[in-house]
Amino acid sequence: SNLSWLGYGCLKGDGTVVTVNAIGAALQTLYILVYLYYSPAKRLVLVQVLLLLAVVVTGYGYFTVLVDSGTRLTHLGLFCSVFTISMYLSPLADLAKVVRSKSTRCLSFPLTVTTLVASSSWTLYGLQLHDLYITVPNVPGIITSLVRFWLFQRYRPELDKPYSPLPA
């Protein structure tokens, strides 16, 4: 996601999008390297990283070779938007689990706050630039965050039944 938005920012000449996503890509790379270092299943993780790298290189090739320069920004903006929307909608499975179990244990409150702040910031930034590719995909992040806040209110963590420890 960061690399896609980094490419979008470079094509558009938007320093803010470039800076934020360059830092995000660097942090994600560091996270992957640390995860790989400490992972007991190094071979599996390495294969997954290499597959992800192949997808990134294929995407880069597609956007630089097959898409003409006149429509490249539009195609990349649409791709980034779809990717961002899918990222924000991915917790919907957890929301169904929360409603079924009437427990918010599987939700992260700090992540919900962070998602709301980030998606709201990007939405406002996109509105300021009149850039629908930045504005529209961040609205689902706001909506899903508000739904999660409502779930935290409805199924308060302190009302959860404590788990009984398993016998040793």
From TrEMBL:
Record's GO cellular component terms: plasma membrane
Locations listed in the record: Cell membrane
Membrane disposition: Multi-pass membrane protein
InterPro entries linked: SWEET, SWEET_rpt
Molecular function via GO: sugar transmembrane transporter activity
TM stretches of this protein: 20-38, 45-63, 75-95, 107-126, 132-151
Keywords tagged on the record: Cell membrane, Membrane, Repeat, Sugar transport, Transmembrane, Transmembrane helix, Transport
Cited Pfam families: MtN3_slv
First-listed, main subcellular location of the protein, grouped into a coarse class: membrane
Family per similarity comment: Belongs to the SWEET sugar transporter family.
Protein name: Sugar transporter SWEET1
Organism: Sterrhoptilus dennistouni
